[in-house]
Amino acid sequence: MAEAFRMVVAVLGNVASVALYAAPSVTFKRVIRKKSTEEFSCIPYIVALLNCLLFTWYGLPVVSKKWENFPLVTVNGVGILFELAFVLIYFWFSTPKGKVKVAMITVPVLIVFSAIAIASSFAFKDHRHRKNLVGGVGLGVSIAMYSSPLVAMKKVIQTKSVEFMPLPLSFFSFLASTMWLTYGLLIRDIYVAGPSVIGTPVGIIQLFLHCKYWKRKVREEPNKENTEKVDLEMGHEKECVTVVPTNCNS
């Protein structure tokens, strides 16, 4: 019975996290249509990519015992595909200067992940130390992802309008965080539950702001470009939370 309940929670967490990962697709359609990244930032997507890489590796038998954390592999594996696609699209439509910036951030991130993967594989002989290394770094990255919605929340409070914080994004962020917090507590894994300790309250606050301001309109017409930029950067927490965006182990 307990095992079945854990599986249900994991499946719900996977569904909510995939929906959260897919949220920025609308914004990237705009990037493709305009053939420009405009003033959008690539950093949230690169950080989310690192998060997904770390927790996919965390869930594999190299780090975890057998397939005890298989749900992390499935959801973060999908997350890798989404985030990698977003980063590649951003790179393709960036200016030459923007391409250099993407490369200068992405390459070190991939080097860091490779170093952690190699160290966890060969420097430690037991799963406990491997999980502490990969999980500890992943926890720090996830917490950074979950701080990204704070920008949008500040904007909501200033304008008294949730136009800058889409409800589906807030809902799936809350749902994913809640499910992964529950799952992490059930399996007694601090690295799975840890990010959601921050992500869940952030999600609750976002939903509260929706309840408070959903009928309000901004006092002045917002700049459309700035609005979409906020939406883009919220796409990961993340997280995580997004937001990640994201955590989508959480």
TrEMBL record:
<protein>
    <recommendedName>
        <fullName>Bidirectional sugar transporter SWEET</fullName>
    </recommendedName>
</protein>
<dbReference type="InterPro" id="IPR047664">
    <property type="entry name" value="SWEET"/>
</dbReference>
<dbReference type="GO" id="GO:0012505">
    <property type="term" value="C:endomembrane system"/>
</dbReference>
<keyword id="KW-0677">Repeat</keyword>
<feature type="transmembrane region" description="Helical">
    <location>
        <begin position="164"/>
        <end position="184"/>
    </location>
</feature>
<keyword id="KW-0762">Sugar transport</keyword>
<keyword id="KW-0812">Transmembrane</keyword>
<comment type="function">
    <text>Mediates both low-affinity uptake and efflux of sugar across the membrane.</text>
</comment>
<feature type="transmembrane region" description="Helical">
    <location>
        <begin position="6"/>
        <end position="28"/>
    </location>
</feature>
<feature type="transmembrane region" description="Helical">
    <location>
        <begin position="190"/>
        <end position="209"/>
    </location>
</feature>
<dbReference type="GO" id="GO:0051260">
    <property type="term" value="P:protein homooligomerization"/>
</dbReference>
<comment type="similarity">
    <text>Belongs to the SWEET sugar transporter family.</text>
</comment>
<keyword id="KW-1133">Transmembrane helix</keyword>
<dbReference type="Pfam" id="PF03083">
    <property type="entry name" value="MtN3_slv"/>
</dbReference>
<keyword id="KW-0472">Membrane</keyword>
<dbReference type="GO" id="GO:0051119">
    <property type="term" value="F:sugar transmembrane transporter activity"/>
</dbReference>
<feature type="transmembrane region" description="Helical">
    <location>
        <begin position="100"/>
        <end position="121"/>
    </location>
</feature>
<dbReference type="InterPro" id="IPR004316">
    <property type="entry name" value="SWEET_rpt"/>
</dbReference>
<keyword id="KW-0813">Transport</keyword>
<feature type="transmembrane region" description="Helical">
    <location>
        <begin position="72"/>
        <end position="93"/>
    </location>
</feature>
<feature type="transmembrane region" description="Helical">
    <location>
        <begin position="40"/>
        <end position="60"/>
    </location>
</feature>
<dbReference type="GO" id="GO:0005886">
    <property type="term" value="C:plasma membrane"/>
</dbReference>
<feature type="transmembrane region" description="Helical">
    <location>
        <begin position="133"/>
        <end position="152"/>
    </location>
</feature>
